[in-house]
Design goal:
Length: 311
């Protein structure tokens, strides 16, 4: 990494940079164009934004927002850590006690992945929006049974899906338990609210199975021959790196369009539906289908689509 500092105007910097690039090309010195930054007063280096006008070094806005979200999530938990009534939120800690609490918070942070942070923040922010609209004087914690029931009703009013609401309730109860408050997800009332939500929001699964009739098995065999026997994921690039889900989904969509299949009913999950359906039509037992699909419940039954003959 090389920096060139120069006085204004900016034309001086552009002229000097171009001279250097011409000289580098003349002597055969390789310069990566994607890593070459034109004259600017703001530059991101090592994750920090350097500002030569304000003479500041600061976090970029995206990282600053991430830090704010993390602090917002853990402040809820840290402020009530170790108590059921939040009585320790205003008292001062000794330096030693404060350091132990920070270590404890870091340990708890390690229990969540990056994606989990984002999801938990999303659920908390949605609950905060609910409180701000209907109960602006209320605090986030503790969450009462009444408020959680009303929050579920609020989510239905906002047309959220059952899976989303179920996840929100689970995440809010996680925060509730981490703060030392009762777990409301085990409540009979909450269970019945979610059950009723699911029934009212129930809709037919229109996804169709991708079976050997659609996906020619010999094409997979040809791919396996080309890939060879080596460790790693089945579907990967030539360098061995796994194919991202987004890339796979996009290529599947293009292939289905080329084959004249309706992409509205054939999705990535259609492979899982097709495998279960094909296995069932071959007479494979339910226990083996569940085992092969790594299902731990009776959810596999929803994936079996066997044509029915109406007489």
């Amino acid at each position: 990494m090389t920096f060139y500092l120069y006085p204004p105007p900016i034309e001086i910097g552009q002229f000097n940079l171009q001279k250097f690039l011409d000289f580098a090309a003349e002597i055969g010195l390789p310069i990566k164009s994607e890593k070459t930054v034109l004259p600017t007063t703001k530059l991101i280096f090592l994750g920090l934004e350097l500002d030569s006008e304000k003479m500041e070094i600061r976090l970029p806005l995206d990282k600053l927002e991430k830090v704010r979200n993390l602090l917002g999530f853990f402040s809820i938990r840290f402020q009530t850590f170790g108590t059921r009534d939040g009585s320790n939120t205003n008292r001062c800690f000794t330096p030693y006690e404060g350091s132990l609490r920070m270590i404890a918070t870091e340990i708890l942070e390690g229990s969540l992945t990056k994606n989990s942070f984002q999801n938990y923040n999303r659920s908390i922010n949605y609950y905060k929006d609910f409180l701000a609209l209907y109960f602006p004087a209320s605090s986030v914690l503790p969450i009462s049974l009444e408020y959680l029931v009303l929050f579920i009703a609020y989510c239905m009013h906002r047309q959220l899906s059952f899976n989303t609401v179920s996840s929100y309730v689970s995440m809010l109860n996680y925060v509730q338990k981490m703060a030392g408050f009762p777990d409301l997800s085990k409540s009979f009332v909450i269970k019945k609210c979610l059950e009723g939500f699911r029934k009212k929001k129930a809709r037919a699964d229109t996804r169709l199975p991708i079976t050997p009739a659609i996906l020619k098995v010999h094409a997979v065999w040809e791919y396996c021959k080309m890939r060879g026997i080596q460790n790693g994921p089945l579907f990967c690039f030539m360098d061995g790196k796994p194919i991202p889900r987004q890339y796979f989904t996009r290529q599947l969509q293009l292939s289905l369009q080329w084959a004249g299949c309706d992409t509205a009913v054939y999705k990535g999950h259609s492979f899982r539906i097709g495998a279960a359906s094909s296995a069932a039509m071959m007479g494979i037992s339910s226990d083996n289908i569940q085992l092969m699909g790594r299902w731990h419940s009776d959810a596999y039954k929803k994936y079996i689509r066997i044509p029915v003959l109406n007489i």
